[in-house]
Amino acid sequence: MTNPVQALTKSVTVNDNPFMKPMEWLSLLLLAAVILVVLPLALDGFRLNLVGKYLTYAFVALGLVICWGYAGILSLGQGVFFGLGGYCMAMYLKLEASSVENTKIQSTPGIPDFMDWNQITALPWFWQPFKSLPLTLLLVVAVPVLFALLISFAMFKRRVGGTYFAIITQAIAAILTILIVGQQGYTGGINGITDLRTLHGWDIRTNHAKTVLYFVNGGLLVACILAAQYVKRSKLGRILVALRDKEDRVRFSGYSVAGFKVFAFCLAAAFAAVGGAMFTLQVGFMSPSFVGIVPSIEMVIYTAVGGRLSLFGAVWGTLLVNWAKTTFSESFPELWLFGLGALFIGVVLAFPNGLAGLWRERIEPRLTRRVKALRAPPPAIAPPHGAPAA
Amino acid sequence: MNAALLASPVIGAASAAPDYLLAVEALTVSFDGFKAVNDVSFYVDPDEIRVIIGPNGAGKTTVLDLICGRTRASAGSIRYKGQELTRLSESAIVQAGVGRKFQTPSIYDDLTVFENLEISYPRGRSVLGALTFRRDAAVRERIHEIAETIFLKDHLAERAEFLSHGQKQWLEIGMLLIQDPELLMLDEPVAGMSVGERVKTAELLNQIIRGRSVLVIEHDMKFVEDIAHRVTVLHQGRVLSEGSMERVKNDPKVIEVYLGH
Q1: Lowest-pLDDT range, A272-281, B11-20, B226-235?
Q2: φ, ψ for residue A320 (rounded to 5)?
Q3: What are residue B23's phi and psi, to 5 degrees?
Q4: B159 touching A, CB under 8 A?
Q5: A236 to chain B: which residues are within 8 Å by CB?
Q6: CB atoms < 10 A from the CB of B82, how many?
Q7: What is the number of structural domains in chain B?
Q8: Which residues form the ABC transporter domain (chain B) (predicted)?
Q9: The CATH number of the domain where B196 resides is what?
Q10: pLDDT in tens, B142-172
Q11: Which domain range does residue B207 map to?
């Protein structure tokens, strides 16, 4: 009899926009448990390091969920930001590995070996900041974000969007690869920056260091998930969804649309950069093959397979596709790329919201029904929990 | 006689110039030489419901596009409360107090009715503001109040996608109301509505008129008669006639090009 009144007051007072819904907390807990407990216990050092490498791509996938899934901005150039973050980290590590003592056989001791091979006799100006660790950690994020700001501001102010934006980001990925390969003396060329040894005196090549880095990586990933979740559930997150749907309506509701798109793109770039830096630390080198078109598109596929609207889905998708890549390319190296292409087409045609979509549409409703059935008998407990969200 | 008809409101207008909410003067826009709007002038008073009618292609929607900044004028001026709008960005025009409803319901299908209204709430419009926006009691109260006005208070938690066509139109009107604009522009608000929905929409417009002006494009003559204070008839990008519905209806030029059909 008091139902209508209750319903009204409830909708006014109850916090209908919590930081995370119970199901999302559960997903986070499950993911954190698998990454930080189950995998380290189950896998040997080599395999764990591989998973660590996969997880660095998950940072990119997280960014794509916000940028592509939520805001509808498809970027086919996320490798650029992954690469820039990775290169910033690699430049610091390379300088530390190129101490005068280590490089005394070179004609110019104290500069990276590839510079010496290319007859460069002094450290270029843009390498100078990477002598300092704090500055490097800042630049790892700042360089890619500023670059993303430049690209996206130029394009979104002129209202370039959709396919054109995707094509331009892809072109930038190609251009940056060519630039890195061509400027061998400054960048290490096609081989990239290799033979990295220590981080502030701490040897990153030992098994112990790799395990530590794996956990740092896992922790950063969880932190990035929480940051993305904050953005997603803020009004800004809903504005991004609104933009994807009806950009003009948002514009004529008094918003300067370009700023919001720039934010989404820069956030994705920041996540990708963190992933890139962790990649360099765990794998021990950085090369242009992680910057170009192919890795950029692969990262979009990870996101699509996992579910472009789900932060957790994107991480699972990245792990799954990379695990498949390692397994299949060990046995059928020729076929892997076809398999990847087929997977992408399959996802787009059959389940456009990826694994997370399958979960939400097929499995979760069944689970909630089960849980409801279990909770139903003692009626006193049911009301305070409220109905689980649909 | 026709000349007198056309001239009289303009002369009457000139004597009270500072009181206009919106003054459109000699507005012209040309698309590759085709003048979609050609030397259009009209003036809207505070608290007035002005309806723009005219045959297809007369430039009605283009006039609204020009006022809200979606299309840029080739010549002429649009002054809103003495402020020139032709040079402002779209978002600045909205923030100055001009709201625009599009012809087809333009709402966010993937969000709930509540969230649709919340996005239009005039606070936290910058990137940082949107990130730190809090859904406090004032916001909730205002959204519930608006939802009541637009007959959607029982649909707040529903995804907008599942509303009926008429409800979507109301939701978009509600999204404008929550911004509390002084000038509300509606492009065919009752097109595609059932008879019952039309009556309710007329009632809604009469209710929200207080404290603001409304500029409406509409084809439904019955509806226009119900709501209009004054009517402006556009034809081939020019103002053909202007005045009360009674006067416009009896203007032979209007009958010839528009009402006679």
Answers
A1: B11-20
A2: -65, -50
A3: -125, 110
A4: no
A5: 127, 130-131, 133
A6: 10
A7: 1
A8: 22-261
A9: 3.40.50.300
A10: 999 999 999 999 999 999 999 999 999 999 9
A11: 2-106+180-259
